[in-house]
Each structure stands twice: as structure tokens, then as C-alpha cells.
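Internal tracking record. Fields below are filled automatically when a chain is submitted to the structure queue. Please do not edit lines marked as system-generated. If the sequence contains nonstandard residues, flag them in the REMARKS field before resubmitting.
Queue: standard
Priority: normal
Entity type: single polypeptide chain
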Amino acid sequence: MRNLKLLLTYDGSRYRGWQRLKGTDNTIQGKLETALTRILDEPVELIASGRTDAGVHALGQVANFHCQSSMDCREILSELRRYLPGDIGVLSCEEASARFHARYNARRKTYLYRVWNSSAPCVFIRGQVYRLETPLNIDAMKEAAAHFLGTHDFRAFCTGKGSGKSTVRTIDALTVTRQGQEVQIRIRADGFLYNMVRIITGTLLEVGMADHPLTAGDIPGILETQTRSYAGYTVPAQGLTLVEVEY
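SYSTEM-GENERATED OUTPUT FOLLOWS
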């Protein structure tokens, strides 16, 4: 049994997320598995580094699958590029060790959130950015970002019913930069909770708004309280991109 590793990129705008769903083939996983099953003539089940939500994009998603086929990786790559829609791309296909697991072996992930901070139109990138016209204080956002670095319990910065699993994560990089009319928030950690990036981003944006009471100095207290309602709002999915998965 072979274990193959895929490096993927996709525009998640028109899909219902990564995870395969019953009753629809409009998911990233569904499109890929359908194509691979057709190409290899055997059932294929993909394992991803993580399940991106509806509307979220990827520059460097990683997935693996097992198969019996002896087809060369270069031929599989060529056939995938032939059958997949234009908004799902396969950057590489290669042999992996038998024990490689795209999710469990991941050591760090990097996400990028893009904010179009202007009243000017953003026609060509509107599906990849969150449009926010309110002026932002980037220095205040940078000050707030520094409080997230290190190992913390991020219970206040996630959503979900709580499965009893640990909500402790380690963020080793979190930057806020402005490039013209676009504000970019880049975050790297050893793992992420559900909606963690989008809530941290929403919190940073609130800190950057002059008319909002939340300040950079409030972040340590929010982390300590572990209470979701004290943190910022959950920003829309379309501004989020999975940039890289490290192993």
C-alpha cells in the first residue's frame, strides 16, 4: 500500500469547506476524492492537515492518501490538473513514508488574514479580503498582538461546544502590517482551535478602532478569564488563507 502526499492550493469562495459532506459534492475534499477515484480506479480517502471552513482559502494545504495503484506520481499530478476545476490546484504529488499523516504529523501552521481597510473598491481581490472601512491604528494592533505570543489557554478565542480537549496552544509569530490599503495579520502556531484565527483577528481589529473600548492592555485579562464573550468578534471567512504547514 502506497502513501502519497499532496501539496494543494485553492480558492474556497464557492465551496462549503474542505470536509466531504453528505448530499453535496461541493467541497474541496469531495472534488479531489472524486478525481482521484476516477484516475486511480479505486476508492480514495484524503487526510488533510486541517479542515478549512467554507470560504477559506489555501496556498499550502497538505493532504495524504493510501492507494494500491502503481501509477507514477508525475502522471497522477498531470491527471489531477486535467480533471480538477480551475480553483483547486495541486502543486505537487510525491511518495511519503508509510507512517506519514498530514494531520497528526503537522508541527506548525501559518495563516494569513487580509483586511481591505479602505472605502475604495477592491474588485479583483474581493473574494480574498474582508472589507472594513473603519480606520485602524496599526501600532495599537501590534501592541495587542505581542500579548498573544507564547503558550496560553486560548479558550476565550475559540468557538465550539468543548470536547474536553486542551485549549492550550503556542503562538510563536503574530504580525500586523499595512501594505497600502490592505492590512495583513499573519499568525503561526503549533495548532489552532476552531475559529481561533478569526477571533484573534477580530479582537485585534477592535483594538485598532478608535471608537472601540477594547485596548491592547485588555488582552492578558481576556486570556486569563477564558471567557469567549470578552474577546472580539469572529471576522468573515473569506479573508483567511492557510499559508503553510510545517512538518
